[in-house]
Amino acid sequence: MKQLLVSKAKPLSSYRWLWLMLVVAASGPGAAQQPASALETTIRASKWQKRLLLLCAPGPEDARLTRQRQLLTPVQPGLAARDMLVREVIFSQLAAPDQRYLRERLGVKTTDFVLLLIGKDGGVKRRETAPVPAAQLFSTVDAMPMRQREMRGPR
Fold first, then answer.
1. Domains in the chain, please, with CATH?
2. Mean per-residue pLDDT, 126-148
3. pTM to 2 decimals?
């Protein structure tokens, strides 16, 4: 039956055939694509589920990163209440796709401390180059329309 349908199909011109083959080749699994960034995957997976707080630093012993950890440690319940997921991003330990994603998509210089607050919609809501007290982060989140709805409770 498949042959019958094919035999009745209108033949493609050589140009259309070439175009179709190029489109199929470019969109197939063997297409040359940049490797997916684990960081990008994390951000996409968190979309509409969690707010991400990315603590980006050149190394794990960066003084600003250490200070930000200290500021966040006592407020874990507040982070959880706001659906905030904290992730440390250490530049010296990142794969090339993650470094490229940080530079090109998030505009982060990989030589300095950067705090990024990413909303549930996937957008960057706050960007800081110094540690931020938890109260200021919570204030930013609590002012977001989605958080306002969350605080009013389920409907």
1. 38-152 (3.40.30.10)
2. 96
3. 0.75
